[in-house]
C-alpha cells in the first residue's frame, strides 16, 4: 500500500493573511510531498509496506521513523489550522486548559515560550498524558507524541520552512498569528477521543 499526500482541508490561499498560498505551496506541496515520496521509497518491498503510518512510527527508528513521523506530523498540522479558526476553545478542553495553565492566556504564553525555546527544527505539541492532564512538548526534528504514548491534541510546526516565506526569521510573529487560525473544533475532538 503506497502512502499518499493527504488532501488539504482547505484551499492553499484559505489561511491568508496569516499563512500565504506561497507558503502552503512549498510547505505542503513540496516538503510534505517529499516526505511521502521518500517514505514510499523506504517501505517498498519491505515488511513495512503493509503497515499503517502509526505502526511504522511506533516500530521504527532512524530514517524510516523520520520520514513516517514527518508525514504524520504534517497531516496533523494541516487539520490544526482552519480559515474559520481562531478564538478560544470551549467546553471540556477550555476547562482542562484553565485547570492546568490557569487561563487560556496562561496556556498560550506557556506554549509560545516552549515553541520559542525549541532550538532549531521541530514541533511544539499540546498533548495529554495517561491521566488526561495536558502537557506541552517540544519535539526535535520529526519526533512526535505518538512515539511516546501521549495523545496529540494540537501541533505547531516550528521548522523554518513553515513560516520563513511569510515571517522570515520572526518565529515569535508567526506564533502570535497562528492562534488566529487555530482549529479549536479539531483540537476539542482530539481531546474528547
UniProtKB/TrEMBL annotation:
PROSITE patterns: SOD_MN. Residues 3-82 form the Manganese/iron superoxide dismutase N-terminal domain. Mn(2+) binds at residues 27, 74, 157, 161. The keyword Flavoprotein does not apply. The keyword Iron applies. Its EC number is 1.15.1.1. It is an enzyme of class 1 (oxidoreductase). Keywords: Iron, Metal-binding, Oxidoreductase. GO terms for cellular component: cytoplasm. Residues 89-190 form the Manganese/iron superoxide dismutase C-terminal domain. One of its GO terms (molecular function) is transition metal ion binding. It catalyses: 2 superoxide + 2 H(+) = H2O2 + O2. Destroys radicals which are normally produced within the cells and which are toxic to biological systems. Belongs to the iron/manganese superoxide dismutase family. This is Superoxide dismutase. It comes from Halomonas caseinilytica. The lineage of its organism: Bacteria, Pseudomonadati, Pseudomonadota, Gammaproteobacteria, Oceanospirillales.
